[in-house]
Amino acid sequence: MEVDKIEAFDYMLHLFEEWRDNHETIKGKPFPKLTAMKLLFLAAAPKEEGDDDLLDIFDNFYAVPYGPVESDVYNAIQANMLPSYIAEYRSIERRKECIDFSSEYKGPEYEPIQNAVKDLRAKNENLIELNAFELVEITHKWNSWNLAMDIAVFMGQMSAKMSIDSIRDSSKIFDLK
Predict the structure, then answer these.
(1) Residue 19 counted as domain residue
(2) For the whole prediction, is pTM greater than 0.85?
(3) Is residue 65 domain-resident?
């Protein structure tokens, strides 16, 4: 069974919230949209060369000045189409009517999402505490982003599509520590 991209991101946000709840400095604070976009990329991309990734689900990344953005997810956020979250000005907050996730997002199709976030946490538990611009700096070190941005600049545009192969084959699998 194939998982819906927007539902997969919705579940990922829930996992990010659980992760944030383990860090007193950010627990309960608004979750910036830019932070969510950077964490999505870092969770979706391979952690080591040849590792599993979520790029078959999150397959529409564009290089923009603030790093990679999954365009379909970004558009869903902007249109308030996330099942359990609502976009505020610069943050994403849980919808008031969505309190319990225990019955949602169960099943083997969601295990890759859970494993990707778990793997990201294992790389650096404190990554969740970084602010959006610190995460932007990390994503700017990926060759796939740099290549796509070079193409965008050359074409006089603000963004360029990042191929899945370039993300997977990036010679810079960044150390998240």
Answers:
(1) yes
(2) yes
(3) yes
